[in-house]
Amino acid sequence: MISVVIPLYNKEASIKQSLMSVLSQSYQDFEVVIVDDGSTDNSVAKVEEIQNSRIRLIRQENGGPSKARNTGVKNAKGEWVLFLDADDELLPNALNVFKELLTEHKKANVIDCVQTVQLGKKTWNEPHDLVGYSKNPYKDWYFHKIGPGSNHSIFKRELLMSFPYNETLRRYEDAELLMRLLGEAVLYSSMQPVSLVHTEFASASKIRNDISSDYVGNLKFEGSFWKRMCDYELYLEERVRYGVICDKLYPILKYRYDLLLLHKFLYKIKNIL
Question: Cα 36 to the chain's mean position, in Å?
Answer without folding.
Answer: 18
